[in-house]
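Re: weekly structure request thread

Next one in the queue (656 aa):
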Amino acid sequence: MRRIDIRRFVAQAARQEQFLEVVGRDEAEARFRRHLDLTPKGAETVPLGAALGRVLAADVVAEVDVPGFDRSSVDGFAVRAADTQGAGEDTPVVLRLNEEVLSAGRVPSLTVAPGTATVLATGGMLPRGADAVVMVEHTESHEEGNALLVEIRKPVVPGAFVAAAGSDIGRGETVMRRGQVLTSREIGVLAAIGRAEVSVVRRPRVAILSTGDEIVAPGEPIRPGAVYDSNAAILAAAVEELGGEPVRLGIARDDEAELAPLVEQGLACDALLLSGGTSKGAGDLSYRIVSRLTDPGIVAHGVALKPGKPLCLAVTKGKPVVILPGFPTSAMFTFHEFVAPVLRALAGQPPAAKESVDATVPMRLGSERGRTEYVMVSLVRGADGGLAAYPLSKGSGAVTAFSAADGFIAIDPQAEAVEAGTPVSVQRIGRDTRPADLIVIGSHCVGLDAITGRLVGEGLTVKALNVGSMGGLAAARRGECDVAAIHLMDPKSGEYNRPFLTPALGLVTGYRRLQGIVFRKGDVRFEGKTAEEAGLAAAQEPDCILVNRNAGSGTRILTDRLLGAARPTGYWSQAKSHNAVAVAVAQGRADWGVAIDSVATLYGLGFLPLQAEHYDFVIPNDRRDRPAVRRFLAALADPAVRERLTALGFTVPEAE
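Done, posted below.
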């Protein structure tokens, strides 16, 4: 980058000219809605086979009766009810059978006269003269001379076992109302009244455009500093879920000449969504182009939200034009908060029902004053029956946070923190409230994935929350999980896990993982040394940067034991996983860290063994006999699972 470009970038960042007025969430939504045309987008006629999930554009009035004739609901005999009076097991009424059998679809040709009956199958048309059906189970047939007779052993009343014409749907009846979403049940009703096609609301066409030099389409080779375009895929699927038709415009580079015509193309649709586009540092190109719109154009750019501050809302000719933040969690949160309700209205659908539940936060949550902060959470039920809301603190750049969340909590813009144990209201995401069969909280490991993967394949539902060993242990103590995955070493004794138990907790042996120092191969500061020698020497070199682990993790305890009182460069940088440590070293942002050997192999790093740690499972005693826990223990002992753990590079002790 040229010096003049650097100066321009710094000057613009200092001005923050694109955020001259940061407004609150409600004010931003009010400005946005004020100028939108939320009228559903007209009607179109589609074949019945293509109507699933569509919204009716007009009331549906039946032009036929359903059923269209009086029909039998059982196999039996069409009779005059008066002829069966007095019938009993010992005093049967004998009727002569007419010489026809009425199966479904056959039109009767003979009248049921007094003293006669006609054989009638389920769904068959009731013949003239008959007003009831006797079930075949209550009869007995025989011949007498040339006559076929039936003995009726149970009387019936008029209308017995007869579905009268129009009893389900009457001609002229309104069977569905405009705005109704067509499910498989409604499709069946439309077919029953003979509709081969139906008038539905036209799907709003929503243009989706990703912007940025760093964006790469899925399937293309990735390069350093680039990211795959997940936003376009997520947004397109979300638009379809809401009843819209996504129009994928692809990826535009940070080039105004390339971006402007694509924006113009998107404006031909009913809505335009953009995301990202600030990588050059010469200004937000998407914003600059959208700022040229009128009627009224941009109504809000910068909303006091976290995540979601960069959101830009615009309207032109009644159409929504929205620039979503580039980070996936920010993009999806702001999409569902501001765009989804608009698309539902344009698709003719009613507003989504919102559901909230009461919970408590199990750990302290810091917050930034001045912005309403929304924290994605996962819900688990504690020993007291109440819900605990575990934050999914992966940041706005995470792809998985929104998909893994059960809901979110809002932190007041004036609050600096939410203390552990604070009651909160959780706004649900989705409608599935069924709790998972097995709750696992604690330290993540690919070995644990192998165990739970076996259970999921057997039909068990598993919720795994990766909050570190200390977080998992605390959850087990509170009775919020079935299994806590931990690898905690007691600094005094060097013993793993057992010293941290309480009488209410039991320990199940898991497997052994080899921890050690990871470094780039060929680095002479580490090659050929022991982990202890290399770690202590590196701690004395200011230019040798460490990437540390988060406080409370088992690896952090091991690292602190190695370093003693030393605090090398990078000590306070806290990666939240073994993979994050390995990536930082592999990319040269750090020179060394502590991680497990399987991760070092995965990233092609050098490895100096430090200690074999115990990755075990803590189970509350009162949950040990739960069916899901027993299945977890059975999977852990399964030879195929143990073989898989060995293949991943772990040491599996002999089964106890």
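The two ends are 62 Å apart (CA to CA). Residues 12-19, 278-283 have pLDDT under 50 and may be disordered.
Next request, please.
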